[in-house]
Model the fold of this input.
Amino acid sequence: MEPKREHWASRFGFIMAAAGSAVGLGNIWRFPYLTGANGGGAFILIYLGFVFLIGTTVMLAEFSVGRMTQKAAVGAYKSVSRSWTFAGVIGVLTAFLIMGFYPVVGGWATAYVVKSLTGLLSDPTAIGDAFGAFISSPVEPLLWTVLYMSFNIFIVIRGVGKGIEAASKILMPLLILLLISVAGYGMTLPGAMEGFRFLFVPDFSAVSAKTFLAALGQAFFSLSLGMGCMITYGSYLPKDSKLPSSAAVVTAMDTTFAILAGVAIFPALFAFGLEPASGPGLVFVVVPQIFAKMGFIGPILSMIFFIALMIAALTSSVSLMEVVVAYLMDERKWTRRTAVISTGLVMFLFCVLASLSLGLWSSWTIPVLGVGFFDFFDILTDKVFLAIGGLLLGVFAGFKIKKEDLKRELTNEGTFHFALFEAWYFVLKFVTPIAIGLVALFGLFDIVQKELMVFGLIVIGVTALFSKKF
Ligand code: TRP
Done:
């Protein structure tokens, strides 16, 4: 007999876990630096447009497909149509690739919890160089990645309810408190207004096709969409929980955290006259510089901030790992233990490549593609696989699953009314694929990494050819 499928213990627990998956490095590390690099308010506006129109729609579709089939990504596609298996397989592959760099950054955050208290802040002018030296050294960052990965493995190995749900129920509320305290302090600084203006007054002169692709990729990344993560989490839902309100709450929480991270960073950044467009180092260089200027309270606030960042990352990376683990358990009948340990090892190996690509191997790039491993994992997932994954899901749910089946799933067999069903269905079936297609097409002409886009499409094609094997 098959072992009984694990389920979330409560609706609150599920929402915390799903919001935990969504809120992560994407919100606190990446959203601020993308906003900084793409001109502030205008980027945020486009991002919010994608989140509310396409993000909520795809999230609700992922929850429905997961709960309907009671299967993780690959199994969910396969149980509806054999020839769609590849879309789930791409999701599992994407999970490996994201986990090829995510725990590296998670490791940096973990390191900064300690570094905040051990002299990092004593000389603000040296913080940038210290970060550069840290991430490019061959061994130290990887030790932190090992520590971070072991937290991850510890949670996932305990399972859905006792591990992921239990951890999220404690960590998410803690995260809100930590971020609010840092944001609250930043708002009181003289000169903070300029930061608010940067965040909330759009300047469209910096907008191009690239901005749209960046905003779309970020929306999918931040909401954990486009690779079956929310299908997997949805598959652990009992039949009586309401999907539409859950999707709305999770999206709202994710957006709130992104804006909160912006408010924690930009007002203080402008107050101290620092540079908004400083790229991926923003959170690790500019934020500690801000704290360094605050006097004795600085190291404490900095430690709190990096604990928050680590917690946020952790509840997300467990969801990425769970996508692979659930596939191995559902389709390959592995035990959770074996699945978690072997998945963790492979992911760690990827992380070694990513971390070394920032130091020892920084002058080497992958032939033809022209990027190092860290950027390869990052750009290929965020700009290619997630968007295409979202497009595939929209087409799959819109054209392959019967409309009545979706309606029954979304209204719990007609036991309540979902007023927006028709609108949602229309956006899912037509607006989502067309919008993603257009953004990808224009992005293709504009982005520097055309080769990566082509490479991604080839991988998807090859996966489709071999999909019978999964
Ligand atoms: N959403 C997370 C973040 O913002 C990262 C993440 C977790 C993710 N699961 C995912 C991204 C699935 C894409 C797909 O940090």
